[in-house]
Amino acid sequence: MKQYPFSNIHTHVFNSECVPDNFLRILPSKFVRRVPRLIKHILDTKWARRTIAFFARLGAKKDNNKRKAFDKYIGFLEVATQRKQLDVFELEFEVGKQYDSSVRIVGLTMNMDFMDNRPSRHQITFETQLEAVKDIKRYYPTNFFPFLGIDPRHKSGTDLVNWAKSYFETGLEKNGIIFPYFSGIKLYPALGFFAFDPRLDELYAYAEANQLPIITHVTRVGSQYIGSKITELIPLTPKSLSNGNAESVAAMTEITNRISVYYNKKWILDNKLGDNDKACDLFSHPQNYIPILEKYPNLKICLAHMGGSNEIIDSNKKDSDLKQIRRVDSQLWCDRIRDMMFRYPNLYTDISYTLSDLDNQQVKAAIIQFMNTPDAQGQLLAKRVLFGTDFFMTEQEKRESELFKLSQVELSDFHDIITRDNPQEFLRQPL
């Protein structure tokens, strides 16, 4: 039986130049949210990072665990602020080659041009970012498989499809094989839109017809809309591309009811600091994909992160925000994803970022139980779980090489399935 290339299905290559000035408002710190531009400007300078690293290590010299934590955070900053996108990719590539010289790495681009309603002075536009990504593909046509970031505020309907075609239907030749510049679609709804937005309808139809897979962010944490006008993005009754069948109607009813509760609890409020943490969970909710899956049953969608570690096991005992949320949305997102995968045979998930907690025995046990669950056809859900790390976001947790080894040891029974067989089926790339 032919062995498929080792694949990391979930990485990022963007750097500090690609994000808006107020990007650091994604961090839940009132101080940072008051002066995000200043802090970002400071961190973008090499001398500042070295000064931070010096004092951090000095303060933690008697605490080995703290010193390691600071080292990892500084490592994250070094990747994010110092390197070009090509350099970021090559850091990941070097780790992947240790497992397979023909390693495939999926780079997920994100359109961050609309995550803030205020202008940004130093941000390069998304389309400029994409040109640098195409350059990486030219250097590594058989190893790098970027996904095109989509946002309906950028383009919509037929215009969106026509724009996207230029990335999916052009490419380069290697050994007689044509490799498109982009191999799939990346959604990051927490930046300020719902996945069921009717403006995306034509794109989903195009993706289904052309077997383009979709990877979308599904956790309660991560990047999010940091603007001051969140209420403009969350109407009480959002429009949907729903086909009107019973499953879609039931899902949209629950989604609408959840929005109403969030408004009543004042979790959706315009504010100057971009404090939209709870509100942006509404964009990321796994239930939002039911209308899409009902309308486009042959569309491959990966709900990333398995919902997130705090949605794999109930970790709300120490988190007051989660305690409040559980009263409104009691089912863990991981359980929702499992139930949806049981119903929809083209629905996938990945373990990116979440795998950094594989050394937590409760998280590990829950992931293994998830993968050992049979679907409606009797196939284990493990056949639709993908390996990904979320590099370089995870540099704050563990080094990339640590994550590879951790998954290899803790998920040894499934490792070849999730790193080789499943990615081949999901990506459908020529060998």
Automatic annotation (TrEMBL):
Q: Per the UniProt entry, what are the Gene Ontology biological process annotations, in alphabetical order? A: secondary metabolic process
Alphabetic keyword roster: Hydrolase, Lyase
Which residues are in the Amidohydrolase-related domain?
A: 181-426
Using the record for this protein, list the coiled-coil segments as residue ranges, or answer none.
none
Q: Per its UniProt record, what Gene3D superfamilies does this chain match?
A: Metal-dependent hydrolases (3.20.20.140)
Domain of life from the UniProt record = Bacteria
User: Does this UniProt record's set of keywords contain Zinc?
Assistant: no
Output the Gene Ontology cellular-component terms.
cytoplasm
Which terms in the Gene Ontology molecular function aspect does this entry carry?
Answer: carboxy-lyase activity; hydrolase activity
- InterPro entries, A to Z: ACMSD, Amidohydro-rel, Metal_Hydrolase
Q: What is this protein called?
A: Amidohydrolase family protein
